[in-house]
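Support request from a user on the community tier.

User writes: "When I paste my structure tokens into the form, the page sometimes reloads and wipes my input. The last time it worked, I copied everything first. Here is what I submitted, just in case something in the input itself triggers the reload:"
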């Protein structure tokens, strides 16, 4: 399979190049040239379903046995579909090592990178607003020949999230940036455009722009629909709490591969550039706003370009498949409270956006799935404060992170500082 760039000015790339480079040389995002139909994804186990999807994407490039091993290693935890109330189901994506959906993409990418780069030292650079950093750091932890550098905005990430990538040691370094998430993301992008730096050290991105993180996320959409089909024959709607829109984009790819979903809902917090695009046809990126659902605090979602590419830039086609919603912190809190009171189900602030958008958007004859992208315990303070009646259990793997000692490298948001740091990382 070859991969093209959303900017259309780069040569077609192999899977290996797309994975190792991350971003195309024209600064576009890689897209698979073809999207194969998935055969027989329904009715099997998570593992079997995921293997079918993996073969459709990567079967031409990775030997079958090895691909199946990557899938098995990646999916070391269940992804259950849980009924919350009539016609509303939660796809619980938080049963992995860092309790968030990003574990799936990050674990898969670590294994794919190791497959392509067995002998060379690779530096993985990742910007995070919280969950990416922990998923990537843990996905790559202890993998020989790979060093991970996590950039995160100082003071804008919860203590629990922070503990999951600042306490690991080994091959993982956390860079505490005096700026916002957008600054971190801009720094990473700049490093990838720095040819002189790249000539002296091998740099790879692990942000959701990387196809090795993005595409495996389609696995669980197929698994979700397979589970839903056993419960109802209503038409399916999927609601996705969105920040950089990687998760939704992998669902849209699934749709092209034959996933039986009628339509998608993009659920946002107050960072509503995408909703505005749906409503007006105008895309106006802006600085991100801080909200309770902080992993979705993104003002210029990187995967927007992929959505445009997938729909040939047609606003009309996009609005036929995707609707949107955006919620204030007040509404997020109210939703967590109401859902808990009515159903006993405890949402995290991100899942709350997905849940509410689904409840408000469901029509007659439809059943809906919202992606519960993180465990509520990851946002303990917010949840305890906003849903005082709820009893939050702290999973043991979270407590273990919190016992660790924080170690970070302070960094300004000036690119020169990051550059100097990276140069010091050469062997
Ligand atoms: C990253 C994240 C999101 C947003 O996912 P995107 O793929 O960036 O749209 C939503 N919820 C949680 C908990 C996350 O960590």
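"...and here is what came back when it finally went through:"
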């Amino acid at each position: 399979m070859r991969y093209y760039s959303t900017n259309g000015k780069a040569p077609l790339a192999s899977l290996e190049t797309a994975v190792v480079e991350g971003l195309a040389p024209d600064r576009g995002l890689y897209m698979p040239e073809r999207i194969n139909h998935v055969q027989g994804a329904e009715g099997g186990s998570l593992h079997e379903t995921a293997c079918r999807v993996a073969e459709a994407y990567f079967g031409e490039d990775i030997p079958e046995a090895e691909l199946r091993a990557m899938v098995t290693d990646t999916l070391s935890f269940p992804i259950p579909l849980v009924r919350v109330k009539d016609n509303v189901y939660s796809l619980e994506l938080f049963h992995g090592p860092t309790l968030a959906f990003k574990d799936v993409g990050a674990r898969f990418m670590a294994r794919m990178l190791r497959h392509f780069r067995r002998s060379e030292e690779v530096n993985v650079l990742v910007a995070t607003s919280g969950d990416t950093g922990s998923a990537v750091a843990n996905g790559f932890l202890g993998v020989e020949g790979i060093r991970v550098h996590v950039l995160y905005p100082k003071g804008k990430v919860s203590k629990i999230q922070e503990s999951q990538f600042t306490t690991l040691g080994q091959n993982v370094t956390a860079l505490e940036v005096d700026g916002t998430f957008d600054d971190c993301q801009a720094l990473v992008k700049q490093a990838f455009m720095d040819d002189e730096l790249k000539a002296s050290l091998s740099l790879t991105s692990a942000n959701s722009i990387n196809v090795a993180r993005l595409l495996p996320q389609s696995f669980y959409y197929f698994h979700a629909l397979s589970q839903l089909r056993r419960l109802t024959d209503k038409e399916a709607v999927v609601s996705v709490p969105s920040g950089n829109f990687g998760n939704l984009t992998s669902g849209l790819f699934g749709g092209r591969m034959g996933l039986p979903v009628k339509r998608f809902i993009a659920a946002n917090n107050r960072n509503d550039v995408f909703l505005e695009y749906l409503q007006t046809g105008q895309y106006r990126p802006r600085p991100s706003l801080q909200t309770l659902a902080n992993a979705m605090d993104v003002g210029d979602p990187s995967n927007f370009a992929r959505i445009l590419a997938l729909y040939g830039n047609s606003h009309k086609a996009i609005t036929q498949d995707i609707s949107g919603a955006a919620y204030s912190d007040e509404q997020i809190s109210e939703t967590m409270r109401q859902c808990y009171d009515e159903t006993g189900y405890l949402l995290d602030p991100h899942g709350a956006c997905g849940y509410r958008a689904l409840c408000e958007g469901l029509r007659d004859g439809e059943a809906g799935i919202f992606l519960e992208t993180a465990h509520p315990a990851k946002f303990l303070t917010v949840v305890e404060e906003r849903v005082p009646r709820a009893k939050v259990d702290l999973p043991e793997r979270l407590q273990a992170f919190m016992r660790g000692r924080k170690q970070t490298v302070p960094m300004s948001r000036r690119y020169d500082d990051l550059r100097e740091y990276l140069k010091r990382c050469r062997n």
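Agent notes: The reload is a front-end session timeout and is unrelated to the input. The chain is about 45% helix and 15% strand. The chain has a mean pLDDT of 94. Escalated to web team.
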